[in-house]
Amino acid sequence: MRIDCQSHIFPKSYIEVLAQNPHPPQVIRRGNEAIVTYGDVQTFRLQDDVYDPQRKLKDMDVAGVDMALLSTNIPPPCMLSPELGTKGAQAINNFIAELVDRYPHRFAGLACLPWQIPDEAITEMDRVKEVGFRGVMLYSHIGGEPVDAPHFEPVYAHAESLNMPIVMHPTVPTWGEAIKDHWMIGMMGLQVDNSFALLRLILSGILERHPNLQIVMPHVGGILPYMSGRIDHQTEVLGRAREHILQPPSAYLRQIYMDTVSPSLEALHYAYEFVGEYRLLFGTDHPWVDMPRFVGLIEEMDISSTARARIFGENAIELFDLK
Q1: In the chain, what percentage of residues exceed pLDDT 90?
Q2: Long-range pairs of 145-148 with CB within 8 A, sequence gap ≥ 24
Q3: Would the pTM of this model clear 0.70, i.e. be above it?
């Protein structure tokens, strides 16, 4: 079975909420087009046909993908003003719930939360858990605040208590202005920023204090697997940033899940060596990719058929309770 653990939708109802945001990110309408803008840092056009669920199902059929875990990519509702955060999260989650109800054997849901209001994030987590969502999304910063800010820790604790995996996803960095030239935000900035977010979860001790919290890091771990030797040297040899952790950072990093959204066979093999067959999840980042190519890369990996089956679906079935 093939389960795509990174597949995105963008509901029209959420676009309406984005259009009300008093600051970037915002939606600006130009005729029949909707333009998402991060001020002068980045803009992109929303196209209804790209996010059409029927197109997604058709592309899944062509690639032989059985099920997709649906989420919204960027901008997330945690970037909105507080009065719109919950409204935006509910617009996304309600849309996903409708799709899952319509296609229960093809889709499952990953919920957005109004992280900027922790109490409401916990309330929304309870609501989506009740209707069958399989996890929640966390983005690389929460309206500009770091993901390890102390007032967010109750949300992590609640996710741990509900056995709700947290799936990380990049968003435009707060420092995007410095790298907006040459499309470097998309080329590297998103992954670097998301890597800092996960490193914060490790070094702040959140993963130490919540050992049963399951984290999924996309894009074969960002840059962290490749930097883990230097990071461990900083903590274990130089004694830096050891205040909140009892193990080397790499020990926590090897306990998270990584998805396989990378167009590089070399990167996939490195991730496989780093976390092993039980911690890799198949993903595509649809609709922004050629889905069969990402299926083909897993087929090309020099691994056993048993490991391939775990990556394609068995690990996701266990982690997200898709039995």
Answers
A1: 95
A2: 145/116, 146/197, 146/200, 147/197, 147/200, 147/201, 148/200, 148/201, 148/203, 148/204, 148/206
A3: yes
